[in-house]
């Protein structure tokens, strides 16, 4: 089946199977920043933005996103807020193996963009859907705080 | 290009270091942050096939016949292989130096399934979907056999043998019993010492099966290149061992095989093994096409590797004044269906742990058995987490028995600078051991800093009526590489602009080794870190390295980098000495400059141009480094916990790690190793267990039910880096990757005991387990 | 990959039911779809995507109640001012604790309830507030008390009818409510979930509701415990003893399974503890100065 969507601000048409996941379709269509970690919606390595909100692409139907906006890291690398977050992560030692990083950064991007309160508690809550086995979450949380302070 | 040298890498006083000691920007940080396609699965080859594995539903069964006809008739299916299609060549899948100290008990496709999930057949198809469908169409005739799940039973029974073919190198007792490895070491006379002791404490501890759970699954893709060579691109910790093992089982010379490791999404020991590379390689050779295989997360929890479950009985003798006089550690371990790492992990359980208290009387005994359970293997800590749990809980029990503060008991008895490790001479990977003397130790300082940071004598009050609060601690030591065995090499060459290519076999798996090695090279050459271009872990383009395990990369591979860089420095000094008419010792390289004794100065770029175009030589070197020492890093770790006495829930409020890794090459990366290790060890203590149904089937093969820490589960963490100077390490460095994973579990269990007066002898301390313990204690 | 044969889109509730009944084979409604794409049921031939059917709203009903559209996302419910203002906002608190942010973005109240898991987190608090389920067969709209909605694990009364939304009636608007789930880690499937609600006249309980989740095939109202609390003056010293007794009665209504997550014995014990704590805290917060 064919569906139209806006992928990283570009009008796009996909040819997908009815039972295909958004993760499979995104990787097939070249968005390799979206990672496969568990395929059960538990680890968040496949986090992408659906109309600006974070979702686990591995348990969202590709068909679900017809006529919607999807944003991946590929579409945010020129965004100043994302760049500030990336810088804070890189400089702050918040990236070890990097496999969970795009998903984590997208979740944090949404947190900062939404403009609600940003502190250790809200950061950890917003991060709870992104599993990381390398960092213990310490430096990622610190990096987000730093990026937010710089933004104000 | 030079050959193997035995001398020590350079050492300079820390205050004179320019790059080592700085938290430089991680070399691959940007591309990882941007999500660039840098991992194994981010690369495809035209005509690539997708592989899947048909797995046994039985824990123990002969595979009598595999009928693949319907599968092969299915559209898109290209190949199906089962054991009759493959010559069985015995090997071990463990990624270890040759000759591997693990039993050769494995073939690519077994004629008998030995656990639920064992390989029965391989499928390659044009799409993943077709491969999945093909699995459903394969018909298998099994002949079920009695299965053994209990370790004690496996130790006794010889009527049912999980492995019948004797191990050609005699490490396991295959063919005679279900014993995969045995160790028995005696120092002094433990029984006599126990008889003289004022107090004898004997306890049994149970350690669970846990899984590394790296977020990137196992994944590999192989193909035949234009020169007819087999190329394997894989998420591995051991590219060179892989090449050798593949050569052996595929009957190809190593020169016909290339293993390439791109960015790896975590390994933690689970990728110190040939878990799936033989599958893709074999299918590629048979089909002549590229083949990709990626484990599902469910397969990770069934068919990857697990920390060895163990039952440890500790008997400790002490005098009333707190002097420890004897320690006996008896280990019964479950290596599962195959024996990779069975001897060495269990060896570590004693070797890396018992020397913390270097008593004159130590007895260490191991029985490691096969069972029809999923396969145990390497997982960060490599036997030490189990042993440290038992020992450090035991120390607290002894302290309670003699009425002494557990901190003071540890301070009185722990190993010190200049002490000899009494077990080191007796045990060495099945070879003759090497005596270990402690040449650097910040342990005493770590204890003092750590106990102050946790508030050891100022325990906070519980935060609510039904909570109790407790503090607990543990000490840990590990190693830096495997003495006399782990080695690595590095090649370095200078470019026109003063940059250098650093080619290392050493394996970056997320820990930042490319960065640390670049820092060492930059420090040695007196150039900016940004000038070092690192290429790692390509068996064609980088020289040999054992790989990322045993905490060897900074200490061992770093030693090779330091040597190669020093040789390059000496070459440049020699060239400039000729130009400046002085001796090479008078040429100083620092701050991207070269300076002579009479005020001569050139930028490193000018030096490079001079070398390449005037002297007409390529400055560069290859160097190897083997250490005959494995200096232990030390950790003192402390937990502040609250226990909800009604629900049994345990909340860690604060965790402190004070760690001595010698010279800290990169503070942020070192802290990152510690923080990540603590998170993994908290899982070991509180949440993680691979649960089986009594018939060898995994009940919780997903992240829904195998709970690893999320950001909400982490306590306030404080990390204290305690410097010391290790004379045998590059710029004084030791290892950091594993030592911090050993202490948190016993520290937390000790804290729970402090809080509620009840000791758990089994982890994970789930809410229900704690609740039951409290129920039983209150009668 | 899931072997679905067809993916259909509905622009209205009536169209959704029509697409469902058209067949061939067996179909399922899909909104967020995360449960379905995890489970990938082999006997499902097609799905009907109802995200465009106009059921995503959260609204106040004209008589002062609350209406949660079937495809209202859990995140939307968690943030809605209408939901925060209703009966102490516990519905929002519970929604906020469902999974994590990516789950709540697409996960819907309808999906949470219709999937019918015993651990469905939204069920207990809604049952405690006398909620009703509204649904349609494409022609007629019907409603049923949520207490009759669940038939068993993964089974509701709906069949192929479409859930339109959940109505919480106005008479519960000022009830005092609280809910708590017990799990192994901070973010986890519920081992036990308890919701309590009280209708107070002055300091006297007129109506109590105690609903248990994850400890029986369907959510369970602990009716003997509720009745035991009727007419209780919550400021009296013996109120505490009554709460403890009510908690014991509630635990008797739990029929949990023992599984790899927890034993039945533990779950029952936790029902008692959580019920007692919720009742005490609710009474304490009512009495506490503002």
Helices and strands, with pairings:
The complex is a heterotrimer of chains A (152), B (779) and C (290).
Chain A: E1 2-7, E2 10-15, H1 22-28, E3 47-50, E4 53-56, E5 69-71, H2 80-91, H3 101-114, H4 120-127, H5 138-151
Helix pairs in contact in A: 2-3, 2-5, 3-4
Chain B: H1 29-33, E1 49-55, E2 61-67, H2 69-73, E3 77-81, E4 112-113, E5 119-125, H3 128-137, E6 139-144, H4 151-156, E7 179-187, H5 190-196, E8 199-207, E9 219-224, E10 230-234, H6 239-250, E11 257-260, H7 277-287, E12 291-294, H8 297-303, E13 310-318, E14 324-336, H9 342-351, E15 362-370, H10 384-402, H11 406-413, E16 420-421, E17 436-437, H12 443-454, E18 467-477, E19 487-494, E20 500-504, H13 513-525, E21 532-536, H14 553-580, E22 588-590, E23 593-595, E24 601-603, H15 604-615, E25 620-626, E26 634-644, E27 650-660, H16 667-687, E28 716-721, H17 744-756, H18 767-777
Parallel strand pairs in B: 1-12, 10-11, 14-15, 20-21, 27-28
Antiparallel strand pairs in B: 1-5, 2-4, 2-6, 3-5, 7-15, 8-13, 9-10, 9-12, 13-14, 16-17, 18-26, 19-20, 19-25, 22-23, 23-24, 26-27
Helix pairs in contact in B: 6-7, 9-10, 10-17, 13-14, 16-17
Chain C: E1 6-9, H1 13-22, E2 27-30, H2 34-39, E3 46-49, E4 58-60, E5 66-69, H3 74-79, H4 81-84, H5 90-96, H6 101-106, H7 109-114, H8 123-128, E6 132-136, E7 141-145, E8 150-152, E9 155-156, E10 162-168, E11 176-182, E12 192-201, E13 204-213, E14 220-221, H9 223-228, H10 239-252, H11 264-287
Parallel strand pairs in C: 1-3, 2-3
Antiparallel strand pairs in C: 4-5, 5-10, 6-7, 6-10, 8-9, 11-12, 12-13, 13-14
Helix pairs in contact in C: 10-11
Name a few traits of the molecule.
heterotrimer; A: 152 residues; alpha+beta; Ubiquitin-like (UB roll); DNA polymerase, domain 1; 2 domains; five-stranded mixed β-sheet; 5 helices; 36% helix; 15% strand; globular; B: 779 residues; seven-stranded mixed β-sheet; 18 helices; 27% helix; disordered N terminus
């Amino acid at each position: 089946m064919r569906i139209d969507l806006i992928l990283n601000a570009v009008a796009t048409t996909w040819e997908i199977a009815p039972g295909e996941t958004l993760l499979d379709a995104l990787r097939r269509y070249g968005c390799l920043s979206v990672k496969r970690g568990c395929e059960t919606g538990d680890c968040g390595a496949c986090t992408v933005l659906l109309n600006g909100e974070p979702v686990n692409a591995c348990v969202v139907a590709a068909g679900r996103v017809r006529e919607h906006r999807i944003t991946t890291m590929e579409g945010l690398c020129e965004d100043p807020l994302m760049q500030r977050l990336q810088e804070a992560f890189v400089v702050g030692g918040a990236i070890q193996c990097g496999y969970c990083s795009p998903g984590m950064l997208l979740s944090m991007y949404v947190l900062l963009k939404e403009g609600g309160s940003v502190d250790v508690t809200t950061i950890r809550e917003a991060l709870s859907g992104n599993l990381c086995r390398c960092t213990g979450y310490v430096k990622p949380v610190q990096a987000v705080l730093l990026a937010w302070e710089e933004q104000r | 290009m030079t050959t193997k040298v035995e001398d020590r890498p350079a050492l300079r006083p820390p205050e004179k270091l320019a790059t080592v000691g700085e938290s430089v920007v991680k070399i691959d940080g940007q591309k990882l942050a941007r999500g660039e396609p840098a991992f194994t699965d981010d690369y495809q080859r035209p005509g690539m096939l997708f592989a899947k594995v048909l797995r046994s539903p039985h824990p123990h069964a002969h595979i009598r016949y595999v009928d693949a006809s319907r599968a092969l008739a299915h559209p898109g299916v290209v190949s199906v292989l089962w054991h009759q299609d493959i010559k069985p060549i015995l090997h071990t899948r463990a990624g270890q130096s040759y000759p591997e100290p693990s039993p050769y008990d494995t073939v690519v496709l077994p004629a008998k399934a030995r656990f639920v999930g064992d390989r029965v057949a391989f499928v390659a198809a044009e799409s993943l979907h077709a491969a999945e469908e093909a699995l459903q169409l394969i018909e298998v005739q099994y002949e079920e056999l009695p299965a053994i799940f209990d370790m004690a039973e496996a130790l006794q029974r010889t009527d049912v043998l999980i492995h019948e073919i004797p191990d050609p190198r005699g490490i396991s007792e295959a063919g005679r019993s279900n014993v995969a490895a045995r160790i028995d070491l005696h120092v002094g006379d433990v029984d006599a010492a126990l008889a003289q002791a004022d107090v004898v404490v004997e306890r049994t501890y149970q350690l669970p099966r846990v899984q590394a759970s790296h977020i990137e699954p196992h994944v590999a893709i192989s193909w035949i290149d234009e020169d007819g060579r087999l190329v394997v691109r894989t998420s591995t910790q051991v590219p060179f061992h892989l090449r050798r093992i593949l050569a052996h089982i595929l009957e190809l010379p190593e020169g016909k095989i290339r293993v390439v490791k791109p960015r790896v999404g975590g390994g933690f020991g689970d990728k110190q093994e040939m878990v799936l590379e033989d599958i893709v390689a074999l299918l590629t050779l048979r089909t002549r096409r590229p083949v990709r295989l990626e484990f599902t997360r469910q397969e990770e929890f069934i068919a990857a590797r697990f920390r060895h479950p163990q039952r440890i009985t500790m008997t400790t003798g002490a005098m009333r004044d707190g002097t420890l006089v004897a320690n006996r550690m008896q280990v019964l371990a479950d290596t599962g269906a195959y024996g990779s790492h069975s001897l060495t992990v269990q060896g570590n359980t004693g070797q890396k742990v018992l020397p913390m208290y270097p008593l004159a009387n130590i007895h260490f005994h191991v029985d490691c058995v096969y069972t029809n359970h999923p396969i145990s293997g390497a997982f960060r800590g490599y036997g030490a987490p189990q042993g440290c749990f038992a020992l450090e809980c035991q120390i607290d029990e002894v302290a309670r028995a003699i009425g002494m503060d557990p901190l003071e008991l540890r301070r009185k008895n722990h190993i010190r600078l200049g002490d000899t490790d009494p077990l080191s001479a007796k045990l060495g990977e099945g070879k003759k051991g090497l005596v270990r003397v402690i040449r650097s130790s910040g342990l005493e300082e770590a204890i003092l800093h750590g106990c102050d940071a946790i508030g050891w004598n100022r325990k906070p009050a519980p935060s609510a009526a039904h909570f109790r609060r407790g503090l607990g601690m543990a000490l840990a030591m590990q190693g830096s590489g495997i003495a006399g065995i782990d080695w690595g090499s590095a090649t370095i060459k200078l470019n026109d602009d003063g940059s250098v290519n650093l080619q290392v076999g050493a394996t970056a798996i997320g820990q930042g080794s490319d960065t640390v090695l670049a820092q060492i090279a930059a420090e040695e050459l007196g150039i900016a870190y940004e000038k070092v271009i690192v290429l790692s872990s390509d068996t064609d383009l980088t020289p040999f390295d054992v790989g990322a395990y045993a905490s060897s990369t900074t200490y061992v591979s770093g030693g090779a980098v330091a040597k190669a860089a020093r040789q390059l420095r000496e070459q440049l000094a020699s060239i400039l000495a000729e130009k400046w008419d002085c001796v090479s010792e008078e040429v100083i390289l620092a701050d991207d400059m070269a300076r002579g004794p009479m005020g001569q100065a050139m930028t490193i770029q000018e030096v490079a141009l001079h070398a390449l175009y005037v002297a007409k030589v390529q400055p560069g070197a290859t160097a190897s480094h083997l250490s005959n020492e494995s200096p232990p890093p030390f950790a003192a770790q402390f937990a502040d916990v609250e226990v909800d006495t009604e629900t049994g829930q345990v909340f860690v409020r604060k965790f402190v790690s004070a760690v001595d890794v010698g010279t800290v090459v990169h503070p942020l990366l070192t802290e990152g190793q510690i923080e990540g290790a603590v998170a993994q060890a908290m899982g070991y203590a509180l949440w993680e267990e691979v649960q089986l149904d009594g018939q060898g089937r995994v009940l919780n093969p997903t992240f829904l039910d195998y709970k690893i820490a999320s950001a909400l589960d982490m306590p306030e963490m404080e990390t204290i880096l305690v410097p010391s100077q290790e004379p045998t390490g590059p710029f004084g460095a030791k290892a950091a990757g594993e030592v911090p994973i050993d202490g948190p579990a016993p520290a937390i269990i000790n804290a729970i005991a402090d809080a509620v007066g009840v000791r758990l002898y089994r982890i994970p301390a789930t809410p229900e387990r704690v609740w039951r313990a409290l129920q039983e204690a209150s009668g | 990959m899931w072997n679905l044969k067809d993916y259909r889109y509905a622009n209205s509730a009536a169209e959704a039911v029509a697409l469902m009944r058209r067949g061939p084979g067996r179909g399922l409604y899909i909104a967020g779809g995360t449960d379905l794409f995890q489970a990938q049921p082999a006997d499902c031939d097609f799905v009907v995507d109802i995200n465009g059917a106009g059921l995503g709203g959260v609204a106040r009903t004209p008589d002062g109640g609350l209406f949660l559209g079937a495809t209202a996302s859990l995140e939307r419910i968690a943030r809605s001012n209408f939901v925060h203002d209703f009966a102490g906002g516990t519905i929002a608190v519970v929604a906020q604790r469902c999974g994590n942010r990516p789950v709540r973005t697409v996960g819907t109240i309808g999906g949470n309830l219709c999937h019918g898991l015993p651990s469905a987190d939204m069920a207990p608090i809604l049952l405690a507030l006398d909620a009703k389920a509204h649904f349609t067969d494409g022609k007629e709209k019907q409603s049923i008390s949520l207490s009759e909605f669940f038939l068993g694990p993964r089974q509701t009364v709906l069949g192929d009818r479409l859930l339109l939304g959940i109505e919480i009636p106005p008479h519960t608007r000022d009830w005092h409510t609280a809910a708590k789930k017990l799990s192994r880690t901070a973010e986890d499937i519920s081992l036990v979930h308890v919701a309590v609600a009280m209708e107070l006249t002055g300091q006297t309980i007129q109506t109590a509701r105690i609903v248990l989740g994850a400890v029986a095939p369907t959510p369970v109202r602990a009716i003997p415990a509720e009745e035991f609390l009727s007419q209780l003056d919550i400021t009296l010293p013996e109120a505490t003893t009554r709460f403890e007794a009510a908690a014991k009665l509630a635990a008797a209504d739990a029929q949990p399974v023992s599984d790899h997550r927890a034993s039945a014995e533990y779950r029952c014990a936790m029902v008692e503890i959580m019920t007692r704590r919720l009742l005490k805290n609710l009474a304490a917060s009512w009495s506490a100065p503002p």
